[in-house]
Amino acid sequence: MSDDDSDRPVRLGLIVPSSNTTAEPEFREFAPEGTTVHAARMALESVTVDALDEMSHDAVRGGELLGHADVDAVAYACTTGSLLHGPGFDAELEAEIGEAAGVPAVATARSVCRALEALDAERIAVVTPYTADLDAKEREFLEAAGFEVVAIEGRGIEANTEIGTLEPEDAHEQVLEVVNAHLAASIDAVFLSCTNYQSLEAVGDLEAELGVPVVTSNGATLWDLCRHLDTTVDAPGALFAEPSRHV
C-alpha cells in the first residue's frame, strides 16, 4: 500500500472456484474490521481431479485481475486445487500469483501446512466433503509435508454447489464421527478441508469438546494472508489465540 493510500481499508483478494459460495462470506465475516474482500473466479462445477486441473490454468489470470483492484494480498482459496500436483505445486502457485498481482500471495494447501506447523501439530485427523480419490491425494500431500494422517474421511460429494449447502452443524457432526471412530489414536489437531465447506463457525465448540486445535481451510487461508499485513484476525480457534501468530 502506498503512502497516498494509507487511509483506505486493507483489501484482500481471493481467487475462488466459480461455484464456491462460502469463502467470500466467511472471509467477510471474520476478516479484520475495515478490511474489504474482493474476488476473482475460476470456472469449476464438479470437484474432480480433471476439473481442478483445468481450473488451475486460470489462477495466474485471476491474480493479475485482482492486481487491477490494487489489493494488498491475494489468496488462491481452493484446497485440493492447490495440492493437486503434490508438494511444490502450492509454492509455485503462490510465486506465480504473487508476481501477477504484484503483492504477497498464499495458496490454501500451503496455508494449512503453515497453520498446522504453527500449532505444533504432527498427528492429525482430516475431515472433507470430497470423493475418495481426492482424499487420497490430500493424504499424500499432507504426509509428504511431514504430517501423520491418523484418519481422513470424506462425504463423497462431487458437485461443488452441494458442498456449499453444508452447514457448520454438518461439519461439527462429521468431525465428531471421525474422531470418535478413532478414539484409540491420539491426535494433535483436526483439519476440516475445503474452502466451500461452511465450518469456521464450528471451530470454537469443536475445540471445547475435543481439546485439540481445529483448523479449517478458510481459517488457515485468512490467518496466513493476514500474516503478510499489519492486521490481526478475530476468529474462533487456537490458531488465532496467540498475538505472535498474527505478525
Automatic annotation (TrEMBL):
Q: Which domain of life is it from?
A: Archaea
> Which Pfam families does the entry mention?
Amdase (PF17645)
Looking up InterPro entries in the UniProt record yields: Iso_Racemase_Enz_sf, MaiA/AMDase
Q: Cross-referenced PANTHER family, in alphabetical order? A: BLR3294 PROTEIN (PTHR40267)
Q: What is this protein called?
A: Asp/Glu/hydantoin racemase
Q: What organism does this protein naturally occur in?
A: Natronococcus amylolyticus DSM 10524
